[in-house]
């Protein structure tokens, strides 16, 4: 237990995806409950907990840079103890132990629940290396919300059974494991009672939800319970194309509280590349799916992600992808150069594409997307929308926020002027009047 006479300050740095952020929030609540003082910056902490991402090379590099900064602060006498957990720790257990002797503790995902015990042990002078089993990873419990107060991530499952050949997530987080509908709804009720107006539903594959627990796809069953809550928006991220059922499509189309927004990571459109990725479909089937979604869900905002430079990707296959992106005119698109990840099947595939070529192809896709987005946003000038205020930008002297077509921390911001002072989390009606650097500019009406 923390010494209340001279309270130990703990800072938690969380990197990577919202699922990792949920892990951090569970740990934060445990740390605070134990009597430690939570500080907002690692440089103010006696003990810094680094919740790492280890998904792809760029994420690993960011995590290692954060660890090295903490080590430098420790050498300067600022941070006294360093604890590393999260995906990088889980993925590279032996290396973390051996290559960073300055780290006081390395925890696997299955031992996040032991964070308070670990803090106490390192403060007592122990070095802790504790992994346990990833199946012990706990998704339940009280969370200390780290997002803005009006929205929160609602994790419904962890792990993944898709086993795409380029992805290390199944190795890191294990098999797909759903939470019960009862537990999810109970957590959502607590969040809503605390002021949350937007629930962002997340998992590695939200559309697989319930298959392991209930023997069927149960996302619509869960959504039927969530829409009963006093919440304004429910947003779905990470939907798998092959599991976009008619029942789910109808639910999104007909339920006012569910945002007409689907994050549908397609990764590619070439049948051969998708097959080698361990995914299904081809350009024809994916085109048909996009058409179906737009016809059945009026006003749909469709987000996707692509990977360029996957092993064996020819110029013709890349051109097919670029043409597909142009034809589909996705509202939101992220494109990433293939990352050759240790331990994944694709890392050992022949015909690896040169790294610079992978990056170049991704840049081409994103440059084309910028042009398409500009054209689409210009057509919105003169229209109105409802926006949630998320802050005030002193440089532009405007408020900024999002409407239902913008996911938090992903899709950017809308800037607008207001005729009165607004509070963060307030919903207001605005009219678009301009577009600057693909940022919509509006005025409160």
Question: What are the defining features of this structure?
Answer:
445 residues; alpha/beta; Rossmann fold; pyruvate-formate lyase- activating enzyme; OB fold (Dihydrolipoamide Acetyltransferase, E2P); 3 domains; six-stranded parallel beta sheet; 14 helices; 19 strands; 22% strand; globular
CATH class of the largest domain: Alpha Beta
Give the total of domains: 3
Task: Walk across the major sheet and give the strand order.
Answer: 2-1-3-4-5-6
Which residues form runs of ≥5 with pLDDT under 50?
A: none
Give me the secondary-structure category: alpha/beta
* Helix-residue proportion: 25-40%
- Indicate the CATH architecture of the largest domain: Alpha-Beta Horseshoe
Reported for the largest beta sheet, the result is: 6 strands, parallel
Spatial separation of the terminal alpha carbons: 53 Å
How much is the average pLDDT? 96
Enter the CATH topology name of the largest domain.
pyruvate-formate lyase- activating enzyme
Our count of helices gives 14
Strand content: 15-25%
- For CATH, the homologous superfamily of the largest domain is named as tm_1862 like domain
* Gyration radius over CA: 23 Å
Give the CA-based shape: globular
According to DSSP, the number of beta strands is 19
